[in-house]
């Protein structure tokens, strides 16, 4: 059986002593945008001399689908209503399934995102998931990205369990909330259309992860497969910092990994999972800006 997805391990561990809710986000890095939340003047359709649009994610305490969703939504300056409007393009029967809200950790304001759908026990194959993606109302380019992400997940699971990827049956990552999470991330990334997408080396910690297969070492086996070719760095906390979905999204969206890119920052935000690591930096910094073409 394929590995149990750990996306919600980052999403349901609270430490009330380390977080304080505030009603706003300190987003001082602002640029110029139109009322639909889309950025203009940096797209790939611009002339050869136009600035590059640059997106970077600095994953201080790790990365998950929820963290990416919050950060990408804020780069587009979307609220819950706008994200839910996009969610209905994926699954028209949904209403208010996505929550995007301000959240603070150690009095530092940021954002969280979550998807609330009834839990399922369906174990979908890659073919099942790709059919759901193909039938949804996302753009063809966003569908292609989402299909690539799930194919990467299936390949990683196939290596873990010694099965052809077509025979892999997804556990939680195949549930509708995880499918929606992945497709929404791909939709928002497709709206941003960055010319350059970079991320920090991914922080990894030792420890244990509880899942359907028992107690696994951190990083989880599927994450280890997805980390091939990705630089990593030690993390002060313990336990899961990178989920399979988070790693597959970064890889599927074509991130390069390294230090901060040379850029003029125009918009920034901090995105949090709800797992708090004591005595360690928490959250991921998202920054959108421009850079001169070389």
Explain what this protein looks like in three dimensions.
The strands form four sheets. This protein has a five-stranded mixed beta sheet with strand order 9-4-1-11-10, covered by helices on one side. Strands 2-3 form a two-stranded antiparallel sheet. A two-stranded parallel ribbon has the order 5-8. The N and C termini lie far apart (48 Å). The protein has 294 residues and is of the alpha/beta class. It has helices at 65-75, 80-90, 126-135, 140-161, 176-192, 221-226, 244-252; strands at 52-59, 98-105, 108-115, 196-199, 202-204, 208-211, 214-217, 232-234, 256-257, 264-271, 284-291. The chain has one domain. The protein is globular, with a radius of gyration of 18 Å.
Q: How many strand units?
A: 11
Q: Helix proportion of residues, in percent?
A: 25-40%
N-C termini distance: 48 Å
Number of domains: 1
> Which strand order spans the largest sheet, edge to edge or round the barrel?
9-4-1-11-10
- Spatial extent as radius of gyration: 18 Å
| Secondary-structure-derived class | alpha/beta
- Number of alpha- plus pi-helical segments: 7
Q: Which sheet architecture does the biggest sheet show?
A: 5 strands, mixed
- Hey, roughly how much beta strand do the residues contain? 15-25%
Mean pLDDT, to the nearest integer, reads 83
Shape: globular
Q: Which consecutive residue ranges, at least 5 long each, have pLDDT under 50?
A: 1-47
Helix and strand run? EHHEEHHHEEEEHEHEEE
Quick structural gist:
By secondary structure, the protein is α/β, with parallel strands linked by helices.
């Amino acid at each position: 059986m394929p590995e149990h997805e750990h996306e919600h391990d980052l999403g349901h561990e609270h430490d009330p002593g380390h977080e304080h809710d505030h009603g706003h986000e300190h987003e001082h890095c602002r640029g110029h945008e139109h009322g639909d939340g889309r950025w203009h003047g940096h797209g790939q359709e611009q002339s050869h001399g136009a600035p590059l649009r640059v997106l970077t994610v600095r994953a201080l305490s790790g990365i998950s689908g929820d963290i990416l969703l919050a950060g990408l939504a804020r780069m587009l300056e979307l609220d819950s209503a706008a994200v839910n409007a996009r969610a209905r393009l994926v699954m028209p029967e949904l209403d208010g399934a996505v929550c995007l809200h301000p959240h603070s950790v150690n009095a530092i304001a940021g954002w969280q995102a979550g998807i609330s759908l009834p839990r399922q026990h369906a174990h979908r194959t890659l073919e099942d998931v790709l059919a759901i993606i193909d039938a949804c109302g996302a753009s063809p380019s966003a569908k292609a990205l989402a299909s690539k992400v799930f194919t990467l997940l299936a390949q990683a699971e196939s290596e873990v369990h010694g099965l052809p990827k077509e025979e892999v049956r997804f556990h939680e990552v195949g549930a509708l909330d995880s499918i929606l999470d992945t497709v929404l991330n791909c939709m928002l990334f497709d709206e941003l259309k960055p010319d350059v997408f970079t991320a920090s080396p991914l922080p990894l910690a030792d420890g244990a992860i509880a899942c359907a297969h028992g107690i696994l070492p951190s990083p989880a086996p599927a994450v280890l497969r997805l980390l091939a070719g990705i630089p990593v760095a030690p993390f002060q906390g313990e336990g899961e910092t990178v989920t399979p979905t988070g790693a597959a999204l970064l890889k599927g969206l074509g991130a390069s990994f390294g230090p901060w890119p040379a850029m003029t920052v125009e918009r920034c935000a901090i995105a949090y999972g709800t797992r708090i690591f004591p005595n360690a930096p928490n959250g991921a910094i998202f920054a959108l800006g421009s850079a001169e073409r070389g």
